[in-house]
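for ur thesis appendix - HNH nuclease domain-containing protein. copy paste whatever u need, i formatted it the way the template wanted (i think)
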Amino acid sequence: MDLLAQRLDDLRSLVVDVLRAAVSNRVFERGTECELARQIAAIAEVGRLLEALLIDATGEVMRRSDNPVRDERMTSHLGCRDVTQLLQTLTRIEPRSAARLQRAAAAVRSDVSPTTGEVLEAPFPSVRAAMVDGVIGVDGILAITGPLQQTAPRVSAAARRDAADIVVAEARGEGPDAAPPACAELLRIHAQTWALALDQDGAEPRERIAERKRSVVLGVATAGGVPIRGTLLPEVAAQLQTIFDAHLSPAVAFDDPAATDDEPLPARDDRTRAQKQHDALAAALGVAASSGLLPTIGGHAPTLVVSVDADDLVAGTGFAHAQGCDQPVDVAAARHIACAGAVQRISSRADGRIVAIGIEERVFNRHQRRAIALRDGGCIIPGCGVPAGWCEIHHVTEHARGGPTHTDNGVLLCWYHHRFLDRVGWQIRMNGGVPEVKAPPWHGTDHRWRVVTTSPVRLKKRAKRILTT
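the 3d part is after this line
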């Protein structure tokens, strides 16, 4: 007797009714932004609950297919070579998604004793409980358990479970800082931090393995080019990634000196990311071979000249004017550019005569930028995930209002959150030189000021403090 068939049929009918009502009534288009945000959150929660069912069912398929005799496996009974193929057939997902389902099931599903039939404890009980409650789905499960499982057998199972308990608390919004529920990316950062804190000796054996496997090999030249393959040491890959970021950051533009105002360069770029990375590597190799200089981010002020009346800049009204552009730009754009460029104050009389020229007030230099990046880790807006190399530095107290160009007044923001900070609703303040943010009304229910960082160094220190208390 199928114990779930009728309930699943009823659930499917209910979901179909909701979907058809949403489509026919154009619910998403007619709702306010707050309503749409709540709807997406609710839909995602339902999706996580359904994922929990699918994960448990996948775990049972894995158990029934874990038999040394091939003909006695569930997969063989249904004409499939393995669990991945069976999941592909039944769920219509790709192999990578099927593999993720199996890893999630292995991490949270309670096993059954083959001798007594007793249900055993799951490897990560708190992660399983969060899954059953709809707090986390496949992404969250793997984000938490993946880094912790890599520490076995050097770290005991009990210590891994304890660390998972703390990260799960972050997922529920009940962590040490009582921050709002964390997304999967932040959960992965927290889990990686705990894995490093618990596995103090784990890096050394990993490094020895990486040293043995390091390689770069140029293949045989063909009409289509020269293939390249290999394995980089982590620090070498990090350096190469920094070079890529310097070239591929969306906030960086390269001007063609041959272009004229009448014939602007087209903005379209048909290159794939892989092609752009190839070109970035080629440029870096050429520069290194000729002069030893490499591209940097934030090392120089932008060359774009923007003028704006000081009163308009303070009031936030009126327009600014960009050199080479006939159309005025928003004062908000001038503020954004001023945060990433040099500011020079010029005083003039009503008739236009210049009476005073101030010196250029430089923005954050490269030393300040490195310090801020170490403190913040990346864009400080929770859940953003843009790394420090792609971020700009924002004056928390505006430069035009007397805000100093000091690390105590600068935070990392990605281009989007920097440019549209006033619109997206996040608030930022500095408290003793440490950035804090307050969530907008549409983000959760807890809107207190919170310390934020994705810096591995700061997160590891916090983990150590918790371990010693």
